[in-house]
Amino acid sequence: MTLGDADKLITAGLLWLPERFDTPQARAMLMAIGLQESRFMHRRQIGGPANGYWQFEMGGGVRGVMTHPATSGIARDVLTRLDYPVTVEAAYNALPDNDVLALVFARLLLFTVPSALPESSGDGWKQYLWAWRPGQPHANTWPGYFERARRFYGFDA
Known about the structure:
By secondary structure, the chain is mainly alpha-helical. The protein has one domain. About 60% of the residues lie in helices and about 0% in strands. It has 8 helices and no strands. α3 (about 60-65) crosses α4 (about 70-80) and α4 packs antiparallel against α6. The longest helix is centred in the N-terminal third of the chain and has 15 residues, at about 25-40. The two termini are about 25 Å apart.
């Protein structure tokens, strides 16, 4: 998937959320995390339990978004509008086949981070680690992905 294709997906997903969720910083983080997690190539984790381009586990990110006070109502509303049962299991199972829902959950997970969306690679890495809690983080690939996304969305770090 090209960065342009990833942007189209990000745009489509953000349409399901309140307007305040759509900022250049949010878009850049979503693109960088999608690149970091799956390269926008794998909707199911190779050898693992995570689903969607943003690689959500049922008991981790999916449950977190569905139970966090700041995101649970929005997640439930989007699941209802997309005609899915409002359960952690249904959301998790839908992620590999519904890129819009995967984007929504990724943006909502970022919303649970207690600090502002980052404008630098270092701060982005900290937020990514805090929110995604990757089992095997690859710090060497992050700066390049973040920089590509930051440049794509045209904001200065």
